Amino acid sequence: MELSDRKKQILKLVVEDYVDSAEPVGSKVIAQQMGGSVSSATIRNELADLVEQGYLEQPHTSAGRIPSPKGYRLYVNELMEKHRLSLEETREINRGLQMKMQELDRMITQAGQLLSSFEGYPAYVAAAGKGSVRVKRYELLPVDESGCILVLMTNDERVKSQLLHLQLKVPGEKLPVVTSLLNNHFAGISAEEMNRRLMDVSEQLAPAMFLLLSQIVSYTTRVLEEANRKEVRTVGASQLLKLPEFRDADKAHQLMSFLAEEKEALPAPDEQSAMKILIGPENVSEALQDTSVVVASYDIGDNMRGLIGVVGPTRMDYAAVAARLSCFAEGLTRMFGKREHGELPPGEEHEE
Amino acid sequence: MELSDRKKQILKLVVEDYVDSAEPVGSKVIAQQMGGSVSSATIRNELADLVEQGYLEQPHTSAGRIPSPKGYRLYVNELMEKHRLSLEETREINRGLQMKMQELDRMITQAGQLLSSFEGYPAYVAAAGKGSVRVKRYELLPVDESGCILVLMTNDERVKSQLLHLQLKVPGEKLPVVTSLLNNHFAGISAEEMNRRLMDVSEQLAPAMFLLLSQIVSYTTRVLEEANRKEVRTVGASQLLKLPEFRDADKAHQLMSFLAEEKEALPAPDEQSAMKILIGPENVSEALQDTSVVVASYDIGDNMRGLIGVVGPTRMDYAAVAARLSCFAEGLTRMFGKREHGELPPGEEHEE
DNA sequence: CTTTAGCACTCAGGGAAAGAGAGTGCTAAA
DNA sequence: TTTAGCACTCTCTTTCCCTGAGTGCTAAAG
User: Fold this and answer.
1) What angle (nearest 5°) sits at the alpha carbon of residue B9, between those of residues B8 and B13?
2) B349: in domain
3) A145 near A171, Cβ under 8 Å?
4) Is A244 left (phi over 0), alpha (psi -120 to 50) or beta?
């Protein structure tokens, strides 16, 4: 059943008042905000209806009303006006993202920090490979008789390298042979496949050579594993303690442990959509039942997709959060897009 | 003035009781624990003396006593018995550290997590270079006409690499020339020096060459910067909320923000010593006035030194924490020592 | 001089009682 | 359908009192 326009307007006012007061809102305030065109008694009747229909809740008889998850949902879907970011705000976000490009890892962590400080809520970020990163090319550089450098280039254009200590000496002249062996037989395949091939050729090789190869394969396996893993970081959890709904240490502790330990369970937007809003019980995770999550996705080059979101109380300024969040997501996409073409000396790297 | 043996014994009992009850301890309990050899009245007299001398405090008249920082200090210096870790415990720690070796970064973070979960307090970890990491050797690998891979080897035996997109095309044949130029003139010097040299030679070079060089120098600068930076990570901050002294949201918030934002200010042991215990006001940071910190150092190969510590309430089981912490530090040192000699295929690297 | 028993005193913490205030629901009139 | 009026409900805060733990002091005993 559709709500009357007036009911919707009232619901909207309740949500917005509650969002910034964190206190149940009464009929009088609403009447006032509607310009005195109706009396508080009328509002009371409407409020009672809204409660009955499940859009509002009453902490106890004779308290004001607060929005229920269903009420927030309606608000988000229909009532929420697009929040316009001020020019300054947009600029500030983009300036913030304009930090020195460093590794992707640090980069997105910083974006998360920035977001968290903007919103005053904990934030989370992740970058996820699309699954099948492979090695495109191998290179071996001699160092001395018992060591060499292995350089890997992956099909998503990243480079990793590693110093290998050899258990058995391999003369420098042999390296090109190994290199071409690797490039011919170990490029473009998955880690499992690599291990299988290694076994296949094991008997035809000199032991020293085999040892070297297994060292390389084992390192490569780790690199691929890592490139494919989705690692979620959470930032700014301590912000929770500023919110009235988390003054209770137990509640705060529960959520914070969740954010610290099970961050993999935090929601992500669906494949197609750019943003997702989950209100209270719409979350699957037990620990998020009383919180809302707003999360957006962004692109990292062509092969990866990132994720950036905030966690807060259901009482959340969805319009503003959503607006800022898409600004972040767009900023990040732009940023990572640019780097692909190397306008600036970007900064892609790696480290031990 | 030296304390009598009995006073020391009493102080010791007060500390130990308070550590696990978190409640002021009274004369009666102490008398009991001393085996009934003296009456509670006697104890009261002694307690009064200890308060006067500043080793104990009284939250209010007619409450029991709690140790003051001075009292804890005496306890730590003289009274504390070496806590013997059970065999299981040692084994458990070492098993925990035996995780798959990955990058140093992730490795020490995991150690921190492990520590934090052992102690039930927040932990922090860092690895710090000894200051002057330099590039030992450069290598350039051709990719295509508008790109090449730069590989750096530093004097602490780490390898970093990066894909460079060239603004201007540089034919593959030229690369060896550039490489030797780099190795002859840009190796073994600081980042500032590198930039200076770059300026010096700028006029004698073709523009394309100059551009390439500056790209390399700028990347190298970043790498060196990062290799020399001490990055501190904190883990398990949410554990604070379980402690009675941090049930108050404001207090908890204050400390947690400090741990999240100013972790660089967390104490480190002095150059020579392996462990440091800082009790309450012995800390310089404002935010740590009511907490104690126990921190140990460990070695990462020959060039780096790591740091691992916990932050907790002044009421802390110093003996046990210190014992476990050195077990951690030793484990890490052993671990990183081993890798240097390449028993196992270690895993030193870098990414993206 | 040290230890002990005895006792009055202090203070935090918990619960009950009382008052204030906000906001409701209902009724009856416009 | 809206409004004014009013009694009622329920939370929150404050106050008060009581209890219990633990002290400090005094005076006597070792």
Assistant:
1) 115
2) no
3) yes
4) alpha
Distance CA B203, CA B219 (A): 21
Examine the domain organization and report whether B239 and B108 are in the same domain: yes
**Residue in A136, A150, A157, A159 to test binding to B, most B beta-carbons within 10 Å:** A159
Task: Give the domain extent around B168.
Answer: 135-227
Q: Which residues of B touch A223 (CB under 8 A)?
A: 349, 351
Residues B248, B153 share a domain: no
Strand partners, B313: B291
pLDDT in tens, B257-314: 999 999 999 999 998 899 999 999 999 999 999 999 999 999 987 778 899 999 999 9
Q: Do B122 and B263 reside in the same domain of the chain?
A: yes
Q: Whole-model pTM above 0.90?
A: no
Domain membership of residue B151 (yes or no) is yes
Judgement on whether residues B233 and B336 belong to the same structural domain of the protein: yes
Task: Please indicate whether, in this complex, the C-beta atoms of A351 and B222 are within 8 angstroms of each other.
Answer: no
Where is the domain boundary, A79, A98, A115? A79
- Cα–Cα distance for residue pair A298/A47, rounded to 1 Å: 40
**Total structural domains in chain B?**
3
Q: In what order do the strands lie in the sheet with B231-235?
A: B231-235, B123-129, B304-313, B291-300, B275-279
Q: Which nucleotides of C are covered by protein (CB under 7 A)?
A: 3-6, 9-12, 21-27
* Number of helices followed by number of strands (H, E) in chain B: 11, 10
Phi then psi dihedrals of residue A260, to 5 deg: -80, -35
CATH at A47 = 1.10.10.10
Q: Which chain B residues are closer than 8 Å to A215 by Cβ?
A: 345
**pLDDT number for residue B163:** 85
Cα separation, A344 vs B8, in Å, equals: 67
3-state secondary structure of B314: coil
Q: Interior CA angle at A119 toward A33 and B255, to 5°?
A: 120
Per-residue pLDDT tens digits for A142-180: 888 778 889 999 887 778 888 888 777 777 778 898 899
In the block, tokens 């925990």 appear at B96
Amino acid at position A35, single letter:
G
Q: What is the rounded CA–CA span in Å between residue B321 and residue B269?
A: 15
Closest alpha carbon to A331 in A160, A123, A41, A108: A108
Question: Does A350 reside within a domain?
Answer: no
